[in-house]
Amino acid sequence: MMTGNAAGRALFIVAFALLAGGSTISAQTPEETVTREELTEFARAHMAIADVRDEFHGEVARVHDAEGRLRAREQVEERIATVLEEQEMTRERFDEITLLISLDGELRALFDSILVELAEEGTER
């Protein structure tokens, strides 16, 4: 089990490695690497994945054996893969955008406003 400091250092190392690893992310600002359209698709995927994970936590709470929990975990990973496929987004790109949002306050603010817009659209239907 990692302490808070160790977890923070690990997250920093991962973020630094991704940014310094020669990817296009390090050569461009987040605004250049994520369009509003892509961020909207990401937000849709994010919302759907949150729903899948919420269902998983409810299901796994009712499972008391390790084998059943493993099956539930495999099913949630399959459902997440389906969500990403429906949004035409790879897991890697989803993770990249997640990182960018966590590092850039303006991008995070745009993401939050898109989430509000999508939630409002959902309540109008």
Note down, in words, how this protein is organized.
This protein is mainly α. It has one domain (31-124). Helix content is 84%, strand content 0%. The protein has seven helices and no strands. The chain is elongated and about 45 Å long. Residues 1-5 and 10-31 have low confidence and may be disordered.
- Overall number of domains: 1
User: Rg from C-alpha positions?
Assistant: 17 Å
Number of strands: 0
The low-confidence parts are: 1-5, 10-31
Q: How much strand content do the residues show?
A: under 5%
Number of helical stretches of at least 4 residues: 7
Average pLDDT score: 79
> What is the helix/strand order?
HHHHHHH
Features of the shown structure:
125 residues; mainly alpha; elongated; disordered N terminus
In short:
The protein is mainly alpha-helical.
What's the structural blueprint in terms of helices and strands?
Layout: H1 4-20, H2 24-27, H3 30-33, H4 36-61, H5 66-86, H6 91-103, H7 105-124
Helix pairs in contact: 4-5, 4-7, 6-7
